[in-house]
Amino acid sequence: QVQLVESGGGLVQAGGSLKLSCAASGRTFISNVMGWFRQAPGKEREFVAGISWSGSSTYYIDSVKGRFTISRDNAKNTVYLQMNNLKPEDTAVYYCAARRSDLMVVYTTFYDYWGQGTQVTVSS
User: Fold this and answer.
1) Are 55 and 75 spatial neighbours (Cβ–Cβ below 8 Å)?
2) How does pLDDT run across 55-91, given as a tens digit for each residue?
3) Contact 33, 53 (CB under 8 A)
4) Phi, psi for 71 (deg, rounded to 5)
5) Does pLDDT of 37 surpass 70?
6) d(CA 67, CA 85)
7) DSSP assignment of 47-107
8) 93 pairs with which residues across the strands?
9) What's the rounded Cα separation, in Å, for the pair 61 and 75?
């Protein structure tokens, strides 16, 4: 089935930038909506950003608007999350997720495929 692999995480100082990548393989044609989630220690996994198949629709949580940009390159079966002006509160494990439907949702239970996660740590 669909496999998702995240990369690009690391340690960065506050105000710095990172670009995460999510490479998809398998039956990628059924994965219309792609999303990024994150989970900090002791907290529940939360939605961060989502994008439709064509890239015409995107959605971000308020805390990352103006700082994060989600994009995709379907020819490469890859989704990206450009993170600028990072803050310590952005520290978390970031997960890539895929949903068969093209309807944008923010709940984890509505996504069908998940990657293993990549650690992002922002120091102050």
Assistant:
1) no
2) 999 999 999 999 999 999 988 989 999 999 999 999 9
3) yes
4) -150, 170
5) yes
6) 6
7) EEEEE-SSS--EEE-GGGTTTEEEEEEGGGTEEEEEE-S--GGG-EEEEEEEESSSS----
8) 39, 119
9) 27
Residues constituting the chain? 124
CA-CA distances (angstroms) from residue 60 to 13, 25, 30, 42, 104? 23, 25, 22, 22, 11
- Three-class SS state of 43: coil
C-alpha span between 103 and 116 (Å, rounded): 24
* Signed CA dihedral, 83, 105, 59, 88: sign only: negative
Instruction: Name the token pair of 25.
Output: 């393989």
Instruction: Return the structure tokens found at 16.
Output: 């710095």
Position 102: which residue type? D
User: Can you tell me the distance from the alpha carbon of 27 to that of 46, in angstroms, rounded to the nearest whole number?
Assistant: 26
How does strand 33-39 pair with strand 46-51?
antiparallel
